[in-house]
Amino acid sequence: MRVARTIVVAPDALRLVHQVHGRGVLVARGAAPAGRHWPDADVIVSDDPSVAIVVRVADCAPVLIGDRRLGVVAAAHAGWRGTVQRAAPAAVTALTETFGSRPADLMAAIGPSLGPCCGEVGDEVVEAFRDAGHDAAALARWFAPGASGRPHVDLWRANRDQLEAAGVPSDAIHVAALCTKTHARVLHSYRADRERAGRMAGVIRVKGRR
After folding, report:
1. Given pLDDT bands bounded at 50, 70 and 90, which one contains residue 76?
2. How many domains does the chain have?
3. How far is the C-alpha of 152 from the C-alpha of 136, rounded, in Å?
4. What's the rounded Cα separation, in Å, for the pair 129 and 158?
């Protein structure tokens, strides 16, 4: 598999999950047994250099996190539903509770996803954020009316803000700022291609000892 070759692991060392647009966490250690069903989760954390953790996206934001002190890693699948449920902060919490990470030692990358330019949603999405306890100031930053008057969600800003609130330093958060729908010729976008859309992989692994 190309992804495995690129990140230098065996294909059966790629650890994936059945993504359900939530904030459930899988701790990945060791290769998954053959034939095992992928567990339901949207956050994966690992301290094992023999595996690579993977989230799959086609408009949702892949959030990859590494601990500069301990070397442990996390990956989160954060579309608007996952962002409502604070998937990225759940990854930070999982690293701190499972491995003893300090948020100040973390660095994060938010990969290509649906951008605020193309992130048109219904009013019910704004209400879902409000009902989940996101305050009015956050909603004002994360939503703006588009040309049609309908709200557009800014997943990049929302996930950055949530990571900062979880203690990740602002200057350690890197945003690709590439809209998958705008660049659908080279990136996979469900908004652009619907059922024909492929999936991109956000992959990270613990660096092995030399």
Report:
1. very high
2. 1
3. 16
4. 11
- What is d(CA 89, CA 145) in angstroms, rounded to the nearest whole number? 26
Buried-state track 187-197, b at ≥16 Cβ within 10 A, e below 16: bbbbbbeeeeb
DSSP string covering 28-81: E-SPPPTTPPPPB-SEEEE--TT-EEEEEESSSEEEEEEETTT--EEEEEESHH
Residue type at 77 in one-letter notation = H
Mean pLDDT computed over 150-169: 98
210 belongs to a structural domain: no
Regarding beta strands 52-57 and 73-78, do their DSSP bridges make them parallel or antiparallel, or are they unpaired?
Answer: unpaired
Q: Calculate ∠ Cα 155-160-163, nearest 5°.
A: 125
Q: What is the CATH number of the domain that holds 148?
A: 3.60.140.10
Short-list 74, 79, 39, CA closest to 58: 79
How many whole angstroms separate alpha carbon 14 and alpha carbon 26? 13
Q: Which amino acid is at 204?
A: I
CB 153 within 8 A of CB 119: yes
Cα distance from N-terminal residue to C-terminal residue, the chain: 24
192 lies in a domain? Answer: yes
Q: What is the pLDDT of residues 77-125, one digit of tens each?
A: 999 999 999 999 999 999 999 999 999 999 999 999 999 999 999 999 9
d(CA 67, CA 131): 32
Q: Is 73 part of any domain?
A: yes
Domain span including residue 144 = 2-205
Q: Is residue 170 part of a domain?
A: yes
